[in-house]
């Protein structure tokens, strides 16, 4: 049973006395509630959303980052932000726009040759199979500069940006067809598709709306631009769209808000757009058959080629019964297709109603060619009443809709009223409403735009956050609110300030549908997801010169960059291909060169390139920008830029010299240290081998990494020995030091592997022992006690045998009562510490005793 449901099933008194309070004396919780002014409702909300350290979320949410041009990833129910994925905007941490591989992705988004360094990202969408989310790829559109991006969810990296060849502004993307055949992108503000100048007086003749059907190649994970095409639409300012599913699969729907075709003119004394564009009582819902449009587009007779791109004209769509209009209340906003595809719910925006259209009724009218008329462009209009299932008065400013798992239940956002309304679109009645803070735009239930929405959580994306958070200046964060929708009343549980862009919309997915990589295969170009032609392995590092072009093949591994000195001439063009030789998870390096405005992120296995012109003479340190290891600061080198036309005076190397005796002592010391360190490594290796580490993949990969490091020692050691035998102790000390570096790295990963293996091999913990371990950690007992080792407190292994269960129980409950016993006195003297009273409950203490039994049973492992 999920915790949330459990909480729901119990009366609050019982929960507070037995459930939440288990860990703390109830008086302590009472005191905190009083001191912080928390109500029982607050405590429940916290219990529903709080994730203890190490616990993972059930859902991942992908939010558009608005004008930041990024995607924000956070978890539900904890609302913890996990990542900003760089999409349309350069982002230095990920090297995005600062390394050559990612610049190529951004280049796909150039418009008329101009680089776009930002985007107004709007609507994210997952790939789908039979209308269910697959979690393979995410798409997001850029409203400002009509483009579409593909993010691979194996890497959480943007791998493609395509730029729309015909439309100038868009809003109705990204919407994915139920088997990811196409990603739809509909225009917003009408403009000439040929991108030429046409006076506004020619609006009706020369300006057009359009919807682009981007063909997605699921195997390649890329949009195929040549197989993509566009359907021409009237200049009605199309708004949001949605693809049909189930019974409406093959069709798609787009709202509009300027069927008046008004073009403003405040400066000429004319009424503004806002008046002119909302003059009529009705606008048009566009209904089109994307499958038929895609078919039609294959025949050159059916298309106009504009800017090298196929466009199916309105007449062709109409002649083939693929495009229709239905009146809808004026200036609506969202159109959302129900999970079964039977109903379309349209938010009125300027109308207090939501309108529910019945697709089966629409289809009947289409099949019978039962038209109510035609618009100026010859598109058949279907009768509104005959298409409607019904309308419901919801409140002021209905915008978007999200669906529940329960049949007929859905949620609509009210922008002006700042509310979420739960209602039934089949029975057409309102069920519940809740206030949000404030001015909500989109909302989303978990997997809410799929055929299988979940009924547990709802996110409200509030545009305003006045009075919700600490003020941080006139530009306020926005507010994503988490609402528990599992019960009969909606409950607000969490406010997440979003500190980036206007995050328009989110999509969410069960976390277990995602299987991201943790490392790359060695030598991978993460943006093409193929082996990089510049991959460099250990021993292949080199600098090549061709005229004024200098190409460096470099590697990075804890904790050095090879090469550590690069010398070029002023005026050279320098390309540095960097390869991470790391295989261990989370061992990321970064790369920056002083004042060259380049930065790369090197996750394990990645190959990436930075490029710059060495225009000034000078010395330019380069270094690793991630705190990757204890020797991270030492992970650096020098780029030396010389003027080839200058003579530089020779210099005498200075520096204090050690006496031969000092040098001899230093050499002996490092050799001894290495012997001692190696002995430790050998005990760990013995342990790992004896226990058969190969059988445990997680341990195996750590051991492989550790042995990799260890395997580098013989070569370095022989250099040390060669130097020593030549009498060059200075070099010998340096090489021995490098031996030690490799040993430290080996031991670091080796010890982690050992701890992990011990855990794999240990007998399974009883439930009580598991609770005991948690209590032990929560109480901070591990601050003084290390299992299997004497630390700042005694090793607990065997203490049950030494002192008996009852004694350990009593001592944990009340340490002071035993401070006068000779045994305890001795311990206090030895460790110079008294065991503090952690105020464990009797239950917790019993559990800890069970945990200690488990430790004793597995004593040989620690
Ligand atoms: S739209 S707030 Cu830009 Cu998705 Cu309705
Ligand atoms: Cu590599 Cu810091």
TrEMBL record:
Places the protein is found: Periplasm
Ranges for domain Cytochrome c: 767-856
Keyword GTP-binding among UniProt keywords: no
Gene name tied to this protein: nosZ
Species annotation: Parasutterella excrementihominis
EC identifiers of the protein: 1.7.2.4
GO CC list: membrane; periplasmic space
Coiled-coil residue spans: none
Keywords: Copper, Heme, Iron, Metal-binding, Oxidoreductase, Periplasm
Protein name as catalogued: Sec-dependent nitrous-oxide reductase
Enzyme class: oxidoreductase
GO molecular function, one term: nitrous-oxide reductase activity
Pfam family name, one: Cupredoxin_1
Domain of life: Bacteria
InterPro entries: CcO_II-like_C, Cupredoxin, Cyt_c-like_dom, Cyt_c-like_dom_sf, EfeO_Cupredoxin, N2O_reductase_N, Nitrous_oxide_Rdtase_Sec-dep, Nos_propeller
Domain Cytochrome oxidase subunit II copper A binding: 478-654
Database matches in NCBIfam families: nitrous_NosZ_Gp
């Amino acid at each position: 049973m999920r915790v949330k449901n459990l909480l729901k099933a119990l009366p609050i008194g019982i929960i507070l006395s037995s459930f939440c309070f288990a860990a703390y004396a109830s008086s302590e919780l009472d005191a905190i509630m009083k001191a912080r002014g928390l109500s029982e409702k607050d405590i429940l909300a916290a219990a529903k959303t709080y994730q203890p350290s190490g616990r993972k979320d059930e859902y991942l949410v992908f939010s558009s980052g608005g004008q930041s041009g990024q995607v924000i990833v956070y978890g539900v129910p904890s609302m913890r932000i996990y990542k900003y994925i760089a999409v349309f905007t350069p982002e230095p941490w990920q090297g995005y726009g600062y390394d050559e591989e990612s610049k190529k992705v951004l280049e796909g988004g150039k418009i008329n040759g101009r680089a776009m360094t930002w985007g107004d990202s709007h609507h994210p969408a997952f790939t789908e199979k039979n209308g269910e989310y697959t979690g393979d790829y995410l798409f997001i559109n850029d409203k400002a500069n009509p483009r579409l991006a593909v993010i691979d969810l194996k890497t959480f990296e943007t791998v493609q940006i395509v730029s729309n060849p015909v439309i100038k502004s868009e809003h109705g993307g990204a919407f994915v067809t139920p088997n990811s055949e196409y990603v739809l992108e509909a225009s917003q503000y009408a403009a000439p598709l040929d991108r030429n100048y046409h006076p506004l007086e020619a609006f009706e003749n020369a300006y057009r709306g359009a919807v682009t059907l981007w063909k997605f190649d699921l195997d390649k994970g890329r949009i195929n631009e040549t197989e993509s095409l566009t359907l021409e639409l009237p200049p009605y300012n199309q708004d949001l769209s949605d693809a049909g599913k189930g019974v409406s699969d093959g069709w798609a729907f787009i709202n509009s808000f300027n069927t008046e075709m008004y073009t403003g003119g405040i400066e000429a004394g004319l009424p503004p757009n806002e008046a002119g564009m909302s003059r009529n009582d009705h606008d048009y819902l566009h209904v089109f058959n994307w499958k038929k449009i895609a078919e039609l587009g294959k025949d050159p007779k059916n298309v106009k080629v504009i800017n090298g791109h196929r466009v199916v004209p309105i007449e062709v769509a109409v002649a083939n019964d693929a495009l229709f209009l239905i009146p809808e209340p004026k200036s609506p906003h969202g159109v959302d297709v129900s999970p079964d595809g039977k109903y379309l719910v349209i938010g009125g925006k300027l109308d207090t109603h939501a309108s529910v259209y019945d697709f089966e009724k629409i289809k009947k009218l289409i099949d019978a060619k039962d038209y109510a008329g035609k618009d100026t462009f010859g598109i058949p209009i279907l009768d509104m009443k005959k298409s409607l299932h019904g309308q419901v008065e919801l409140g002021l400013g209905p915008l978007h809709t999200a669906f529940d798992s329960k049949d007929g239940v859905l949620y609509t956002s009210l922008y002006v009223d700042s509310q979420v309304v739960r209602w039934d679109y089949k029975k057409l009645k309102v069920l519940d409403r809740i206030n949000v803070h404030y001015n909500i735009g989109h909302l989303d239930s978990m997997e809410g735009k799929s055929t299988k929405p979940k009924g547990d959580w709802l996110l409200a994306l509030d545009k305003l956050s006045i009075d919700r958070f600490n003020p941080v200046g006139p530009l306020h964060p926005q507010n994503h609110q988490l609402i528990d929708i599992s019960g009969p009343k909606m409950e607000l549980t969490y406010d997440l300030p979003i500190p980036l862009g206007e995050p328009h919309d989110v999509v969410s997915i069960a976390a277990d549908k995602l299987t991201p990589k943790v490392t790359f295969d060695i030598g991978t170009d993460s943006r093409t997801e193929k082996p990089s032609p510049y991959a460099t392995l250990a021993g292949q590092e080199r600098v090549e010169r061709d005229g004024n072009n200098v190409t460096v093949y470099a590697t990075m591994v804890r904790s050095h960059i090879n090469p550590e000195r690069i010398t070029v001439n002023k005026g050279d063009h320098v390309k540095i291909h960097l390869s991470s030789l790391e295989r261990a998870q989370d061992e990321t390096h970064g790369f920056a060169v002083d004042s060259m405005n380049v930065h790369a992120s090197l996750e394990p296995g990645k190959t990436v390139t930075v490029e710059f012109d060495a225009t000034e003479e000078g010395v330019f340190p380069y270094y690793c920008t991630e705190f990757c290891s204890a020797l991270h600061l030492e992970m650096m080198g020098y780029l030396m830029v010389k003027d080839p036309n200058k003579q530089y005076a020779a210099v005498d190397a200075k520096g204090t010299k050690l006496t031969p005796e000092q040098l001899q002592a230093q050499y002996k010391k490092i050799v001894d240290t290495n012997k001692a360190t190696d002995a430790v490594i050998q005990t760990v290796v013995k342990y790992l081998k004896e226990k058969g580490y190969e059988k445990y993949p997680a341990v195996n990969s750590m051991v492989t990494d550790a042995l990799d490091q260890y395997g580098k020692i013989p070569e370095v050691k022989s250099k040390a020995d060669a130097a020593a035998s030549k009498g060059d102790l200075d070099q010998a000390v340096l090489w021995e030091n490098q031996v030690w570096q490799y040993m430290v790295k080996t031991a670091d990963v080796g010890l982690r592997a050992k701890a992990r293996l011990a855990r794999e091999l240990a007998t399974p913990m009883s439930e009580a022992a598991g609770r005991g371990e948690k209590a032990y950690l929560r109480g901070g007992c591990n601050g003084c006690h290390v299992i299997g080792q004497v630390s700042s407190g005694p090793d607990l292994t065997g203490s049950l045998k030494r002192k008996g269960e009852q004694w350990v129980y009593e001592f944990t409950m009340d340490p002071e009562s035993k401070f006068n016993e000779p045994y305890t006195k001795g311990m206090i003297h030895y460790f110079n510490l008294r065991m503090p009273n952690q105020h464990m409950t009797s239950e917790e203490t019993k559990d800890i005793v069970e945990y200690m039994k488990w430790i004793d049973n597995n004593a040989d492992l620690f």
